[in-house]
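This week, think about what follows.
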Amino acid sequence: MSLDRYLEHLAYEKRCSAHTVQAYRRDLQQFAGFLEGMGVGLEAATGKLVRGWMMGLLEQGIGARSVNRKLSALRGYYTFLRTVGVLTEDPTALIDPPKTPKRLPEFVELGRMDRLFDDLKWPEGAKGERDRLILELLYSTGMRLAELLGLGVGDVDLHRATVKVLGKRNKERIVPLTPALCERLRAYLVVRAASGVGERGPLLVDEKGQPLARRSVQRLVVYYLSGVTSQRKRSPHVLRHTFATHMLDQGADLNAVKELLGHAGLAATQVYTHNTVEKLRNVHAQAHPRGGGVPHEPSNER
């Protein structure tokens, strides 16, 4: 069975994003190329060949997380082949994924985000309105970059102060907008209309009225975050992490944050609680008499 049939299954039956389908295509084609050098086709792969491929990737310096992602692509493909009756055994069934170190999501401190929106000087005119809106949308809603770029003008409901977001597997969710963000959207829509762009179509456009490119958003997020933080990671996804972390720090319910982020299960959201727990640990160490932090002053009471 052709690889294209499986990729069509991902796109049209599993409703995976184009980005996910392309990533699976790359990983599976890479494994197919490895097998071709052994004179073997994809459907004839064995567990030993899968392990050999993974070991070769690790020896090339490819990280364990990346190798795990590639293994996940193989698992999906061979599960599909078993489901449709092409294979009776899965060569990845007994493969253990390489261990990966736990990595907490990086986020921007609350004070630095305040500086970003309160103190940073933004460009004048349409560019400034658009750039600031992008940063505020990412931080205030926690949406992914692909979700941001997929927004249409019609997805914004300023009357109800909500935005409709199309997430992974084409799952829609409604995210509330703050009053300040609604005002920012109104101001942007005015300058967007003045530039001659039609009332419909993509919400975010460039100076020529064309849909804003993914790379353009990544660059401007790096540029503006560089004005308030020197941390290594400064990306749209860091703003998503920042949204979730700040929401939980301020007492938001974990299930509510899960729904806002569009996570399928709580496990993906719970990773953000580690940052909150670490913050509480530091507070405890500094404030408790036996915490080992700030020295406790003796009381004058007798």
